[in-house]
Amino acid sequence: MRVDRPKVLLLGEIEHAHDAWNSLGQLAELIEPKARSRDQFLKEVRDGSFNGTVATYRTFNSINTTGNFDEDLVKLLPKSLKFICHNGAGYDSVDVPACTARGIRVSNVPTAVDDATADTNMFLIIGALRGFNTSMFALRDGKWRGHPPPPLGHDPEGKVLGILGMGGIGRNLKKKAEAFGMQVQYFNRKQLPEESSGGAKYVSFDELLATSDVISLNLPLNKNTRHIISTKEFEKMKTGVVIVNTARGAVMDEEALVRALDSRKVWSCGLDVYEEEPSIHPGLVANPHVMLVPHMGTWTVETQTAMEIWNIGNVRAALETGKLKSPVPEQADMQ
User: Fold this and answer.
1) Is 277 a catalytic residue?
2) Which one is catalytic: 86, 154, 248, 289?
3) Could you tell me the CA-to-CA distances from 174 to 4, 105, 182 in Å, in that order?
4) Whole-prediction pTM value?
5) I need a surface site. Which of 89, 191, 233, 331 has the fewest CB within 10 A?
6) Is 145 part of the annotated catalytic residue set?
């Protein structure tokens, strides 16, 4: 009697870890969609093209084909699908409650991104504090530092860095910031054990806003954190505060940020993520005190290779053991 092999659906591309991906072919049939749009993808799903698929490997950029893995899509997925392995730390484009309701387990890549993202974070902190952006533009325009020259920047030494969200990236950032002489405090859903926080001071949300010289957003995007920083939060901050965001654009209200920059409540900011990527609020683009990076926190060969290998490991674990090695926290107790 012929037994059909399980299928693994690749959404997006494998850029680096080709051997690791191909090795999964010993365990399952590796398939890809033909679709190039969400409508086409939904048609393939409805037509049964992916029946027999047990797991899917999903990249961030696959959203251009499938759209969000929202409730409308999740309810159409084949009954055979039990695992969604997302190649990224942030997974706000996957409706985890809808997946849980369908008995689909979701994983992410929680640690491989930490070092590179924290490096980007520190780059933006230093650049925003020192105010390098205005003169870098002036230099390319043949105006040396600028005419008139920009205001003097600030040293990181002795500044209070408030980390909002002390996960892996936040803890990595703490170590880097301390190497520059910064004092680190943090707010998290729960206070971390001393060995995890590395001695960083735990403060309330309002105290972090009121006492930090630099505020770094390092928390996941969900219904509770969307626009966690908006007008009333800016009002509680020090005048001249520096803001950096490498998390997700929508944890901060960009319209409110633009107003805070224009009023000089916020002295400068550094951004790697945006509410409506790849579109950027014109008020941010026009402001020379805003350092803009186009979502490149993990844009290194080493990190992206490590992320792919980690995510392939989740697929392999799903096929071999029926479990994921890094399930998302919302499903930690899922039976």
Assistant:
1) yes
2) 248
3) 50, 32, 9
4) 0.92
5) 191
6) no
